[in-house]
Amino acid sequence: MYGLLKGKKGIIFGALNDQSIAWKVAERCHEEGAEFILSNAPIAMRMGEIDALAQKTNSEVIGADATSMEDLGKLVNYIRKVINAE
């Protein structure tokens, strides 16, 4: 690995299990040094294995339905608080 994403931060939506593209993106971003929050719709979080990915990548999981402006607003506000706390 080359550390191409060291110091970069972001959100990865849609990781359900190790067969999903978002899961593979998260693994690769982690390998390259990125820090991120994982997010998915609450029902998908219950059905999937996102907690295992969070543990593997040392990430936090925040539920948010990407079709809900309210959920996305809460997610963005939470991230702003985290960034300002650093």
Largest sheet: 3 strands, parallel
Number of helices: 4
Q: Helicity level, as a percent range?
A: 40-55%
Principal-axes geometry comes out as: globular
Low-confidence runs of at least 5 consecutive residues: none
Write down the overall mean pLDDT: 92
Strand-residue fraction?
Answer: 15-25%
- Sequence of secondary-structure elements: EHEHHEH
- What is the topology, as strand order, of the major beta sheet? 1-2-3
Total beta-strand segments: 3
The helix-and-strand class reads: alpha/beta
Radius of gyration: 13 Å
Give the end-to-end Cα distance, rounded to a whole number of Å: 27 Å
How are the elements arranged and paired?
Blueprint: E1 9-13, H1 21-31, E2 35-40, H2 42-47, H3 50-57, E3 60-63, H4 69-85
Parallel strand pairs: 1-2, 2-3
Helix pairs in contact: 1-3
Protein described:
This protein is of the alpha/beta class and 86 residues long. Helices cover 49% and strands 17% of the residues. The chain contains four helices and three strands; from the N terminus they run βαβααβα. A three-stranded parallel beta sheet has the order 1-2-3. Helix 1 runs parallel beside helix 3. The protein is globular. The model has no long low-confidence stretch (mean pLDDT 92).
Task: Offer a quick outline of the entry.
This protein has 86 residues and is of the alpha/beta class.
What distinguishing features does this structure have?
about 90 residues, alpha/beta, three-stranded parallel β-sheet, 3 strands, globular
